[in-house]
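Standup notes
- DV: blocked on the single-chain target, sequence here:
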Amino acid sequence: MSVPPAERTVRSARRGAERLPAVTGAERRSGIAGAALLMAASLALVLTAGALARELGARYGAAEVLFLRFLLSLLVVAPAAVAMAGRRALSVTRPGGHAVRALSGVGAALIFYAATQHLPFADLVALSYAAPLFVVLLSGRAIGERAGAASAVCVALGMAGVFLIAPPTRLEPWSLAMLAMAFLNAVCILATRRTAQADGPAATGLVFVLAGCLLTAPAALLTGFRMPDAADLPVFLLLGLAAGAAILLNAAAFRRAPAAVLAPIDYLGIAASAAIGFLWWGESPSPAVLMGGALIAAAGLGTLWVGARRPG
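- DV (later): unblocked, structure below
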């Protein structure tokens, strides 16, 4: 998932690690149904957090909103990480990988939060889903996974969707910024695959949130941090709790079902964002945005399908 990277947890780093154990057909169907509900709830919280961040961004700086989001999400993430891993929740064996993950993930989230004030919500979310395309392009150099012809076709299809939403003839600075966000998100995803394999999801998630607090605090101070108004405090709290809970629900979903089953639910975020933009801010997505979002979703699902068929 590429909607704000800081609001998603790590998926399994080992290829094939998401395969389910041998169970009966009824148990498998029940498990998949439960995982689908968890994934849908996680997606709803991710989009809610994005919408709340956009609302708060009209009154506060992007760095301040992101800092408070990281800080308040600790209320959910820290207890869960300690419950899962105990003292090992802060034990890391690849600090360099965690640093790359934190810098790229926080940078991507900061761009997303800043761009919320300049682009329609549907455009923001659709462009953010271009991250898996960059993962395919970068994976050969970063982790030694070469993309085949089918993956190249998926990337071309996805890029066609990107150009429909943000055509080169009228590229705006914030559209380019969102493509930079998707690139940074891809770097974050690839770094996550390394760190999660070595340190596990609890440490990977908790260290990321703590690093996010440390990285965004100076930026928030330098851009004029001010205490939120009393009326906005519940909104900030809801933002942090929604982001933290999305991480936990996403992790729980991927423990119960493979990515190939859950990804189609995740990509409903492109359509849902258009509905949120219309209902919340009265924004009507253009036909180009709707078609471009559909192409990006198709490319992402195709990439997943190609990856699932690749020999282990």
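- Follow-up: Residues 1 and 285 are 21 Å apart (CA to CA).
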